[in-house]
Amino acid sequence: MANIREHCSWVHSREKEKATLKAMDKVRMAVSRAKNLHPLKEIELGVNKKGLVIGGGLAGMTAALNLANQGFESYLVEKSMNLGGMAKRIDRTLEGMDVQSYLRGLIRKVYQNPLIHVITGSHTIEASGYIGNFTTRVMSNGRAKDIHHGITIIATGAEEYKPAEYLYGKHDSILTLLDLEEKIAQGDKGLINARSLVIILCVGSRQEDRPHCSRVCCSQAIKCTLMLKEQNPGIDIYIMYRDIRMYGFKEDYYREAADKGVNFIRYDQDDRPTVELAENNNQSALKIAVTDSVLDKRLIIDTDIVALAAAIVPSTENEEISRLFKAPLSADGFFLEAHMKLRPADVATEGVFLAGMSHFPKTINEAISQANAAVGRATTILSKDTIISSGAVSEVNEGDCIGCGACQKVCQYGAIDLQDTLDGKKAKVTHALCQGCGVCCSVCPTDAISLNHFTDTQIFAEIDTAYPTQRKEKRFEPKILGFLCNWCGYAGADMAGVSRMQFAPNMREIRAMCSSRIHSKFIIQAFLKRVDGVLICGCHLGDCHYMKANEQTEKMIKATKKSLEKIGINPERLRREYISAAEGTKYAEAVNRFTNFLTKLGPIEINEEQEKKLVKLKLRTSKKRKTKTNVEKEI
User: How far apart are CA 204 and CA 308, in angstroms?
Assistant: First the structure.
């Protein structure tokens, strides 16, 4: 497909002539690629019609019950001895829903449903298989049980950060918001008789070591103040905040709290409140000092109780579950969705889905909605007797394979094994496990592995036809070739398109499933075609949809830059940008920034000697020049 809407006409509408030229180039590139396409052999797989749900909180139970209601058997695995998760500590929602009543009803329905097998006090120790045919080993009460299932729903939830700041744990009257809600629900006399309460938001979140926003803290704080005002209308309440984030209709509750006398004091990240213990009539009292950024004054508040809006942090079992099910984690430690808009309940690994706070902090209603969405996606698999898996997978040419094992070491999915043959060890790809990232192709020293639908021939064809040699510009316009990873870079470009962001029309985009598919030979070929710059856009490190595949991209870029510098080509003509699917603005800025840089730098000039060196560098990975011994030394 030649994407001339999002990547061309919508983003270059102010430069119609250049947009038209770019559209012509993109069509030419697409046709040249299409000429080299060949039919993909799709794989038909049988489907085990059972599901595995990891996590017995609200999201996990909702998912298991929804599966059962549609006639599918499921196993609900929970690490603690009781179902309910974090919801057990929540009395009601901001809108007034009785959480405990709802939770009791849900637990009862789960245990009463014959299609749901609840396994508490358990943890997952092994997992293998692929979409439609997973096998997971679960340890419970000292006994291991193998579960065979067709899909997996991850609903491991999240945990409350235990603050190391604000004297938490050193005084009984310093609580977290969850502690506070439990005491309010219990009608704690200390709260009912308290004269004042201070709530400090953003404790442990939105900071350098934990940059994510926990999303629900602001509404949780407002909810607690309204609940407390019902029991103790005369209490003085102060909420110290950096930003109040009451999205949607929750803004009404913020106004209600303000109308009831709740005081909001804004503080700066660099000047946080301080909590001190002071002696008053032989009793310890709490003093809060804060600089009000509006009044520009330092305030001292005596209070009976301090409540900390502690961050929501990923579950401690996320890393292990991620490793077992090949489900990538974000830089924050939560599970990463395949696409934030198109596949928000999927992970990149087929047959694995997300629900609840395992994905990111969210409200109860949002967690339930995502659990239902995950089941909706899962049943598209479970409802079939067989499923067709993508044919865009790697293939090995055994005649060229030297059995070095480089591909096996970088494959994040265990899809490649070395098998004994009459000609020695050879790599073999299990197609059902292969996710089509292409990192194995990039590290193969003999070009023995190719990725169906993204072959070298197809990519070279796009490179060679990106810019017509006969076109002459009135003035210098940098020619840029962009390699965009499907899940982030390409999606970020789409986001820029649908947002109608205007940026320089100098880049010609080539899509790859992962930036790790991009080999240095593609970059060298681009420079041989006199492209002025190459821009590689992919997922942020730690956010790769193929686990850690983009770490290989970093190694490739560093090595290629060193080689370019030795040849005498400015290595800054090769640039890497981290862009997520939501960062359309960043994508547009990256293209503009690179275009401006190359405009000042001037056109690329490659003499005959440099050209020979580039060709030699391109051929350096030729299978005729590599032996297994040399490759093993490099690895």
Answer: 9
